[in-house]
Design a protein that fits this description.
The protein is of the alpha+beta class. 59% of the residues lie in helices and 12% in strands. Strands 6-15-13-12 form a four-stranded antiparallel beta sheet, with no helix packed on it. A four-stranded antiparallel beta sheet has the order 7-8-9-10.
Length: 592
């Protein structure tokens, strides 16, 4: 037992010496998330900075690992790690300073950067090296170790969290819920990194050395992955035939199916790559030869689906990334079909190059293209519907709900991307406040709603428009309790509860039927709030969007008690007001 513990701690010492920067990034990432959350509502700028720090440090795990592998090949470890740290610092300052500025484009930036950092780790140590089999062995081992790390980390996190819960419940410690979250962050980030490095303790030479091909991998690829690909291919080819017979444009989501088929197929080819030259593995050779040819007609389907959406609605970041993946896939197919001497390194390297191009290439990067495209789309919609007079939108003109929705969507999209000056040019000085108020709690969503609600002659009968929506908002969110002794927040009060009010006891529960209609049961007597909902909404007949009113409240007496129900908002999404949505209301009680 002593020897086993000595071996474990000995490995830990080796990992600390071998991968100090990788472990440092994991520790900083975990600490960033652990210290970011407190008991305050929302996220302060200071806490957001800690979250941002944790994200960037977590990004540094894969980056530092890749640079460590490269240093084992070429040396210059200190220089490479310094470059890595400077890159992370620069990326930290690229991200916004506050949560309110963290808009959708930054989410795309983070996702793409994380993928690119892992791609870099997969090939950087083999850049310029002509070691095909070693490259495959290296990535095969990383793939297996990553899978094992996920399993081990899941067991570790689940076991420790259950242990904390057991101690909490059995010994009545009443731990704060944040202990569980902080434990999760530490084990999921630092713990998983440490486990992964335990598998990689001997570094690059051990990862790339030749080893026996895993039988389980061959079984998985031959009997699970490839049959699934055949099923996908049959479905996509039948769908292509249906398009040709009916002479119709493909549905937009078919592009995701084609990409899924292609990506899984490429993965299958990579998994069986060492068997390609084995004479006994004819199924591998056949699959390797025909797969890329099966993609050729599907690429036509893919580009048709992509450009159908782009030509109709313009570029957005997701559509741009789908197009980039389609172009990368085309390059891969042409490379493996027309070139005799090929290398599987082309797959991750080319994807990395396309990804970097999409993020940083001037004028043609994803963010520039999306903004430019949506600006053009907005101008086309306004011109096509004759909504401009002297360059300004005339909100009183009669338009369909579809057009109003599209204009609101473009304003929301461009406002999120800080194109305020461009948006203001279509508005009068009075209307420009709709896109210049920076203290809106709902941000770009509110801007879209305000623009949508500014149109006064919208035809709501348009079947292709979004659902009708009317939201009543209480002007004051601070509710006066004058004249009332007790206050209850009705937040999922489903079970009957006995409330002690002085020397009296009252039984109160709620009932919800249909789409959030509300009934309150007081000592067995039912108070149906639904008629009140309909009455309030009927008073705003003909309106849509957000409407502010002084107060949303209703009152009723029950025996010795007088009750007042106060709402912050009330939402209906159909013209007949069949369903209602609202934030948890406040129930005020006065004992007569």
């Amino acid at each position: 037992m002593r020897q086993k513990l000595k071996n474990i701690f000995g490995k830990s010492d080796e990992i600390l010496l071998e991968y100090p920067m990788v472990l440092l990034m994991a520790l900083l990432g975990a600490l960033g998330f652990i210290t970011a959350y407190d008991d305050t509502d929302g996220i302060s700028d200071q806490n957001f900075s800690l979250i941002k720090f944790g994200i960037v440090a977590s990004l540094g795990i894969s980056l530092m690992f890749g640079l460590k592998m490269l240093s084992e090949r070429i040396g210059k470890r200190m220089l490479l790690e310094l470059c890595g740290v400077l890159s992370l610092v620069a990326f930290y300052f690229i991200l916004p300073a506050g949560e309110k500025d963290f808009t959708e484009p930054y989410a795309y930036l983070l996702c793409a950067t994380f993928i690119l950092s892992h791609l870099l780790a997969s090939f950087i140590a083999f850049f310029g090296e002509n070691k095909e089999l070693n490259f495959w062995q290296y990535n095969k081992n990383l793939f297996i170790y990553s899978f094992l790390t996920a399993v081990f980390t899941g067991v570790l996190v689940g076991g420790v969290e259950l242990a904390i819960l057991a101690v909490d419940r059995l010994f009545d410690f009443n731990f704060d819920g944040r202990y569980y979250l902080r434990t999760f962050y530490f084990l999921a980030i630092f713990g998983s990194c440490f486990i992964f490095l335990l598998f990689n303790e001997k570094g690059l030479k051990d990862l790339e050395k030749d080893g026996k091909y895993p039988e389980i991998l061959k079984f998985f690829t031959q009997y699970i992955l490839i049959p699934l690909l055949i099923i996908y291919a049959v479905i996509l080819y039948f769908y292509s035939a249906k398009i040709l017979v009916n002479w119709e444009l493909p549905r937009g989501w078919v592009s995701y199916l084609v990409l899924a088929y292609a990506v899984v197929g490429v993965l299958a080819l990579l998994l069986v790559h060492p068997l390609k030259g084995a004479s006994s593995k004819s199924w591998v050779r056949i699959f390797s030869k025909i797969f890329y040819f099966t993609l050729l007609p599907l690429l036509v389907l893919l580009f048709t689906a992509i450009f159908t959406r782009i030509l109709e609605y313009g570029y957005t970041e997701p559509r741009y990334f789908v197009l980039i993946l389609a172009l990368w896939l085309t390059a891969v197919v042409l490379y493996f079909i027309f070139l005799r001497r090929t290398t599987i390194k082309f797959i991750p390297v080319s994807l990395f190059v396309f990804g970097v191009f999409a993020l940083v290439f001037p004028y043609f990067n994803v963010f520039s293209v999306a903004k430019r495209s949506q600006k053009n789309e907005l101008q086309k919609i306004l011109s096509a519907n004759n909504l401009l007079e002297n360059g300004k939108i005339v909100f009183s003109k009669k338009i369909s709900a579809t057009v109003a929705d599209e204009i609101a969507s473009k304003y929301k999209f461009l406002y999120e991307r800080r194109q305020t000056e461009f948006l203001k040019q279509f508005l009068t000085v009075k209307e420009q406040k709709l896109v210049t108020r920076n203290n809106l709690q709902r941000g770009s969503y509110q801007v879209g709603e305000d623009i949508r609600n500014s149109f006064t002659s919208v035809m709501l009968s348009d079947k292709n428009s979004r659902a009708y929506r009317l939201e009543l908002l209480s002007v004051s969110t601070a509710h006066s309790v004058e004249g009332y002794e007790y206050m209850i927040v009705l937040n999922d009060l489903q079970e009957k509860k006995a409330l002690s009010l002085g020397n009296e006891t009252v039984q109160i529960s709620t009932q919800r039927t249909g789409r959030n209609e509300l009934k309150i049961v007081v000592d067995g007597e039912i108070w149906d709030i639904t008629p009140f909902f309909r009455e309030m909404l009927q008073k705003q007949k003909g309106k849509s969007g957000s409407v502010e009113i002084p107060e949303i409240s209703t009152e009723k007496s029950f025996g010795k008690f007088h009750l007042k129900l106060v709402f912050d908002n009330l939402v209906s999404e159909d013209l007949q007001h069949h369903g209602f949505y609202y934030n948890p209301p406040v129930l005020l009680i006065h004992k007569k």
